[in-house]
User: Fold this.
Amino acid sequence: MMPFGSKKRFMSEINVTPFVDVMLVLLIIFMVTAPMMMHGVEVNLPQVTTKNIKTGEEPLVLTITKKKQIYIEKRKVDLNTLEDKIKSIFKYRKNKEILLRADKEVPYGFVIQVVAMVKRAGIDKLGMVTEPLE
Assistant:
C-alpha cells in the first residue's frame, strides 16, 4: 500500500497462490493417472485376495504369456537363456527381487520351471502379480 499522494511504484512481491493452485491440480492428476499406467506385456492375470507387497526399489517384472513366451520387462527372452540374463541383470543390484506376471492359462508346470530358473539365478524374493477378486 502507498500513502495518499505519493508516487506510484511497482509491487515487488511475488504472488505464489496461482503457482500453488497449478501444482495442486498437477499433483491430483498424477495421483489419479499413475495407477492406470501399467507397463509390460498384456496377460490375463489370475484373481485372488492378498495384501500388497512393499518394496524399496523398483523390482524387475518377468512376464509369461499364454503362448509360453517369456519377457523381462518388455524384452522377449528365450527359456534357455533366462537364467543367464537374470544373473547378468542382478550382478550389481543390491535388492534381488522379481515380480512374476503369468497368464492364468499358462500350465502350472511351465510356471514352476521358470520359478526354478529364477531361484537358480540367485534371486532372493519372487512375488506373484495377481488381480484382486471382484
Summary: The helical segments are 17-33, 82-89, 108-120.
